[in-house]
Amino acid sequence: MTRAKRKEKREKRYCSVVFFLFSFFFFLSNYAYASGEADAFALPGVGARPGAMGGAFIGLSDDIESLYYNPAGLGNLMQSGVTGMMQPASLGTSRSFLGVTRRWQHAKVPGSFGFGWLRMASSDIEITDASENILGTDKLTNDLFLVSAGVRPFVHWSLGATAKYMRLAFADFKEGGFGLDLGAHVQYNPLRFGLVLTDIGGTKLSGDSIDAGGGTVADVVPPRFKTGIGSVFPQPFNWPITVAIDLDTFFLLRGSQDIKSAFGTEVWTYDDHLAIRAGYRQDAGPTMGFGTRLNQFQVDYSFLLSLHLKDEHRISLTYRY
To answer: How much is the pTM?
Structure first.
């Protein structure tokens, strides 16, 4: 057996293991539940492109937003880049995201480093005393800082990790904590599979109570299994079509909570200069949007027709080099 044959056989074996894990967690998610969402501000995801596809991006993991969705996707990037997202204020709350990636060249283990910052800010939040008398207003901020790395040791699969710091600040109260995410990605065209374990062991957020003698306040972000499957393939008219399905599964041995699934599709046309997207997120509603490319720049827009709260708009600008 030639060296190339042995390498291909080894890669297939590793990919089979990852595919098995993906399938196992995908089906396990129908029975695994958890409680608590201390990171609720981050759960809607980031980026206008993933947003227009319902947030189904774990299996695709082919852009800078992999920082948030699946760090293993950083191993798939062919360029360095920077992206910024703005979600205009709704009900006094705005969200923004900044992501930067830097690709390195290596003969055996290529990959990328990345940094991301997600912020949600809510203005004019009332401050009250024990008798519910209004003392004034202040600003509530939630921040998520991400430092990620992804490598691609074999042709068909990649691995990644994210160290993160989550922080909440309101008036004189602050709490924060560190967490860790691990991801894997397998790609056999046209299929792609993603698996992410987030907040391994639970991410504990702690801070001092604003009440005198209140002691320490703590919240825990539960660990989650997140799985995704996607496909990218040309159609008869040579329009690259992307189809993606993600399943966000909470896993703890206490409490209960619904599973969150997401579906999305994307079609690029006009020589890859224009994209049309649509999707659906189970806990939110239908999504849609479009994007356009011009040389190294890309502009994306997404619209979420919310079933529960206010409709959501996102705009992203990306530069790759």
So the answer is: 0.83
